[in-house]
Fold:
Amino acid sequence: MAKLGRKTKIPYVYQCDDGTFRARPKIKTLTGFKFPLGVGFNSPKEAVDWIVEQQAYAVVNTKQNVQPNITLGAMSEQALAEKSAHKNIRMIRYYLDQAVDFFGANTPIEDLDRANITNYVHELRGRGLSDPTIRHHLAEIRWMMRLAADEHGITRKFKMPKLDACGMRDLPFNLADFRKVVAHLPWYQKPILRLMMYTMQRKTVIFNIKWSQYRMGQDGKMRLHLVPNKTTQQTKEEKTFLIEGPLKADIEALPKVCEWMMPNPMTRKPYENFYKSFSTACANAGVAKMTFHHVKHLGVTHWLEKTGNVAQVSALSGTSEKLIRERYAHLTGANEAESIGVISDIYALESA
Structure:
């Protein structure tokens, strides 16, 4: 910088010993940053005008050199060439081919948006693919877009969707499947799954319910109070659920052998998990790909179908209203209804 001259108060403008001025700005171009040099200016204003011209020329030149019609098929081949030495190149080729088949080889990569990729996730889920496998598919799409930005200046103007935000419209099971699975569980584990769906809470919250949380209100009705718990760290504020009908009979039939409502009968402590019993019940009921987290989603879906009250479901389930509207927007138009409708539907199969 000493050869350029003395610094002035104006960025990128320097004064020489002979009284003239030089300019060396930092200009962003398509391929990176450049530092053009301008000399022989009689005043700082002339140097600044020259810098402005250089910046304007770089912007116009960048827009002219951007290739907006780079197709997905071309970017797929380029991405494969970049990862040709990768040990999992065969799987990468498969992921890219699946994306090209879905979107079309002649589709410009700049036309991809969040909605298109969300539809792609629904397509993959419809084929029965697991979420980890879908993440691999999305990772290769992300890699193609990054390559398009580096090589061709095509920037991605949206965030890649998260799998949880892609919606649970096509659950791998329905309420009838849920009832079948419950029917194949041991009698002392049935209330766990029913409460998990009715309260829309995670399994750790249900496992740690105590008898002290189940008490009668001033109106003579029994309620379940889910309070903040340091052990589960799931419930941040107290939530109250009305317990009546067959669910009330189910709970009151449980033996009070300890402070926990539904403990492991062998240890008389809360379950750490009962996935073995759950998976066995799923297999015996002929229901595949059912998880505890799907039970919560099924509960949220059913509450929205019955009530349509997004604010109420958000407060009870602990899921923000924004996420509920994104994931379950197709269910938020129903009329108000009583929560007893949700309970009765859980038991409808056995009462039929």
